[in-house]
Here is the input.
Amino acid sequence: MENVLIAGANGTTGRKIVQLLKNSRDYNPVAMVRKESQMEKFEKENITTVLGDLEKDISHTVQNIDKIIFAAGSGGKKVIKVDQEGAKKLIDAAKDSSVKKFVMLSSMGADQPEEASDLKEYLKAKHEADEWLKSSDLCYTIVRPGSLTDNQGTGNIKLAQSLGHSGSIAREDVAQTLVGALHDDIANKQVFEIVEGEVVIRKALETISKNPRPQA
Here is the structure.
């Protein structure tokens, strides 16, 4: 089984990712948390944890890690330090440790943050992190969902490299998409947007994987 580090494991989406990985046959989740007090609930479920603060040195967090899902965020409070520089720091550590794949939870609008009417600074930070990942030589997938909701997931999405419209999507479906993108042959060096839709997640990922068009 491959060890998957989840940055932002204690977040709303991060916790869903951890549970999906825990129940999978292919992966062993490693929950990266910022505080010791956050470790207990994961350890009670026999989930491996590692302390890592994205504002500090996190090189130790990638030891014995095969793949990474970056689902961390500052909630708008420290977009430069966490969402941008923290992500870049983990990307660099992943590269130094020869991590096999890095899956980034980004955001719709991160491709053109200057056109955003709100959340402009956040989208700029996500854009910088995405560009850093694309230039890293790592194998990566960048997933840009619409507005996240706490609705029950449907297991279905609408996926395209550019959807051309906004929308929303359940966190459960975003988590499933991120986990699906961990596979070696799925969406390598691809950037795509997702919202709620009618195509089964696995099928949507397989379709875009058969039509590779790496992002410039």
